[in-house]
Amino acid sequence: MTESRPLAIGINLSFCVKRWVTPELWAPVVRERLGLDLVQFSYDLADPLWPAAVLERQAAAIRNVSADHGITVHSAFIGLAHYTFNQLLHPDPDVRDFAHVWLERAYAFAAAAGITRVGGPLGAIASRVDGAEPEALDEREYDGLVTRMLSLAERAKAEGLTELYVEPTPMRREWPWTIPQARRMMQDVAGAAVPWRLCPDWGHGTFQPLYGAGADSMEPWFAGLADVIGAVHIQQTDFQYDRHWDFTVPGAVDPAAAAAELRRNGLGDVPVFLEVFYPFERDDRSILEAVATTAQILKGAMA
Amino acid sequence: MTESRPLAIGINLSFCVKRWVTPELWAPVVRERLGLDLVQFSYDLADPLWPAAVLERQAAAIRNVSADHGITVHSAFIGLAHYTFNQLLHPDPDVRDFAHVWLERAYAFAAAAGITRVGGPLGAIASRVDGAEPEALDEREYDGLVTRMLSLAERAKAEGLTELYVEPTPMRREWPWTIPQARRMMQDVAGAAVPWRLCPDWGHGTFQPLYGAGADSMEPWFAGLADVIGAVHIQQTDFQYDRHWDFTVPGAVDPAAAAAELRRNGLGDVPVFLEVFYPFERDDRSILEAVATTAQILKGAMA
């Protein structure tokens, strides 16, 4: 019975950004300090735009050092650096094309590192001068995005990848940000060369300023989209912003209830990645302690 | 008398990141909505790694659109995306070399956009697996950094730039993070082809977890380094983290006291840039309102 098996809990390397940036640094932290063996790599640790020789060396190190430490790198995800840009929905079509190239390079890097799944948010349209935000993406923009997703899946397949992910974000200017939009997109890319799946995030689906005070759990996202969800991001948050706190911070997410929510919706076999960010100026030692405590809490709740 | 002239208050385009990303979008916001005419460009709006044709077009647009709106672009600064990486102090020497190339491209882009000053933080060494943080940079690392700064100044001069800035950050792993370190660095690069200056930030110099509870103003930084300060970043903060709040948020920085602090230390002629960041998921309209109110508050206090 799926219900009785432990959930697979891993960690996105977001907590390592600008700190434990090489596999020689993050692998012992993950395995020995946190007691975890499942990782989601972050492109904040290696930019696909770095020179080929550097990327080859880093990819080989990820492959070798993670194997040495008994760590599985499940997937590679877009981090803070690339998310800062408008990516595939920048107002300048040439910048979109370059974001497309960035993803192709990201796929090649993942493949070289032995990572077979890649994901992240797709892009954001620009803001208007008057601050008004559209409810939905323009249909032409949307069609262009779907065309790109199909093309990207071809490239991913050629690189030997097995799965791609879209991470819905709580922004009207990004896509998809609602459950029906996510469902529609998954239908529209259903024939892709490798499957596109969703990676919902606990702090995105519960952002109440956008979704309303009723958005106090991930239940609607999980119940509505379970068949197209390939991975999940978990974080502590207060539903007022996308906090990405660890579980030493008081918040609205109860880890045991989170585990039950996943199981209840048939997501007991989907890997769950803790994704936490810290201020750059915070000291290393307190971060290691907080992440280690959080890993214990989650392992306990998901067992 | 310098003391009686208004301080020059401008804005870093950090608040525009992923929102008002082209000059056609940010120039009317800055001029009409905020009533400001002095800007510090952020490389979060144009990555120097974008293809040459895109950068040429964007640089021309910055030059033309800012002129059309009566806006002076004083300088261009590293933003969140590039700050996410370890830059010139990454553990891999080849990644450092690439960060060096990134800066050279940043200088070329600034020059093409008619911007004659460029700055930002220089880089961070990686963290240790045990979380222990060194008090100071290894001397060999430091010497290498100074050598790079001198080489970068040559390149900046060749591009027609007039000034470069180091932004001290409150992190033991970056450099410089103390006043004596900043003084030493300014002495060590004193013969550079274009002058290196400091751009202290109100939320960096007052980060009490690093500097102690006595760090409750910028007075020591300004008094100790006024002769080598070329620009200042202002933000609202609580001295507990580098908040980058706007001045609609209650905090520990009093704008009138801040203006007096600048004037008292002979910094009445140095431009002061508001640098605020917002969560990606916050709605555009409330950001425009908060930044507009903040611009009014600062203009009033600095008049």
Automatic annotation (TrEMBL), chains A, B:
Recorded coiled-coil stretches: none
Gene3D superfamilies (alphabetical): Divalent-metal-dependent TIM barrel enzymes (3.20.20.150)
One Pfam family cited in the UniProt record for this chain: AP_endonuc_2
Domain of life: Bacteria
Residues annotated as domain Xylose isomerase-like TIM barrel: 33-279
InterPro entries given in the database record: IolE/XylAMocC-like (IPR050312), Xyl_isomerase-like_sf (IPR036237), Xyl_isomerase-like_TIM-brl (IPR013022)
PANTHER family: HYDROXYPYRUVATE ISOMERASE
Name used for this protein in its record: TIM barrel protein
Organism whose genome encodes this protein: Methylobrevis albus
